[in-house]
Structures are given as structure tokens and as C-alpha cells.
Recover the amino acids of this structure.
């Protein structure tokens, strides 16, 4: 769908414009609700679809989803890779 060769030769301005257009489309489809990086929002959206939950209001503290009055903790993407425990 997106031509990687075109991305390789694109200017920073063109790349940022494409990124803005992609974020706008994610918002239009209901996957993302803000202009923040979409990875965490995508995880919340997927969780809501799989669990049949409702997304909590934007900026709700401590939870992202509501499922039959149960609160589901936030989905977090680790900033650094999680090390495997020593065995």
C-alpha cells in the first residue's frame, strides 16, 4: 500500500505530511482518538474490540476500557525491551 522506495527518497516535510495524513485516517476510523503516537491507542482499540469493551473517556486515570462495569488496566508499550528472566 505504501511504497517504501518513495519513502526512502522523501523529504522530511513530505514524511511528516504523510504521517499527519495517516494519523488523521486512524482518527477517522476510530482507531486513534488523539494526535499522539498511535501504538498505545491501537492496543486499546484492539483490546476493546476483542473483549467487547468500551473505551474509557480520553485521559481517564488508571484504566482505558470498561467491560460490564469492570475496569481494565492500561495497555502499555515498554519503552525498552523486557529482558527474559534468568533460569
Amino acid at each position: 500500500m505504501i511504497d517504501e522506495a518513495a519513502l526512502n527518497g522523501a523529504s522530511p516535510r513530505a514524511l511528516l505530511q504523510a504521517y499527519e495524513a495517516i494519523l488523521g485516517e486512524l482518527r477517522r476510523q476510530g482507531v486513534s482518538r488523539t494526535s499522539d503516537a498511535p501504538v498505545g491507542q491501537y492496543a486499546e482499540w484492539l483490546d476493546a474490540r476483542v473483549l467487547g469493551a468500551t473505551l474509557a473517556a480520553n485521559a481517564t486515570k488508571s484504566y482505558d476500557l470498561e467491560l460490564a462495569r469492570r475496569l481494565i488496566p492500561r495497555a502499555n508499550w515498554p519503552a525498552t525491551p523486557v529482558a527474559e528472566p534468568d533460569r
Summary: The chain has one domain: 4-73. The CA atoms of residues 16 and 22 lie 10 Å apart. The mean pLDDT is 81. DSSP finds three helices and three strands in the chain.
